[in-house]
Amino acid sequence: MTNDTYEIQISGKHPIEFRLDDTKDISCVFKRLGVRSTTRTPLEENGGYKYTYKLDSLDDITILAEEKVIAGKNKKNSQRLRNALYYISKERDEDEGEFYDKVMNKLCVPDNLDKVINLLLN
Questions:
Q1: What's the rounded Cα separation, in Å, for the pair 80 and 89?
Q2: Given a cut of 70, is residue 1 above it in pLDDT?
Q3: Tell me, what DSSP letter sits at residue 35?
Q4: Helix-then-strand count for the chain, H and E
Q5: How far is CA 35 from CA 18, 21, 24, 55, 81, in A?
């Protein structure tokens, strides 16, 4: 039996439509979260480790507050694209920055971009 403990830390920002009452709790629903980093800290008391996974929302979120459903969305499509590429880079076990640069360098070639647009819109 392992003596390790595990926790998550969620970060990121999503614009919402109106002010929240900060004296009341809210509920959030995340579609996908990406692991941005993992920290391993020794636990002196039992010889195990505490793993902290820092997560970032990769998609839109739903917030339930004050008996209302508030949809929070990433403002910019460029950020949504970066998040999607981050998620794919993790699935492919590739470095996020290198994968992003590789895809964007290929995508920014006019002939390649034209092919992608035709594929997506036809």
A1: 14
A2: no
A3: E
A4: 3, 6
A5: 29, 29, 28, 5, 16
Q: Are 67 and 84 in the same domain?
A: no
The residue type of 99 is F
Is residue 88 helix, strand or coil? helix
Element (H, E) at 112: helix 110-121
Q: Which domain holds residue 43?
A: 1-73
Site of tokens 């508030």:
70
Three-class SS state of 51:
strand
**CB-based contacts of 106, cutoff 8 Å, min separation 6:** 112
pLDDT digits (tens, 9 = 90+) for 77-116: 787 788 778 878 888 999 888 999 999 999 998 898 899 8
* pTM recorded for the entire structure: 0.53
pLDDT digits (tens, 9 = 90+) for 28-76: 888 888 888 899 999 887 788 999 999 888 777 887 776 666 666 655 7
On whether both 63 and 96 belong to a single domain, the answer is: no
Indicate if 62 and 40 belong to the same structural domain. yes
Quick one: 10 and 32 in the same domain? yes
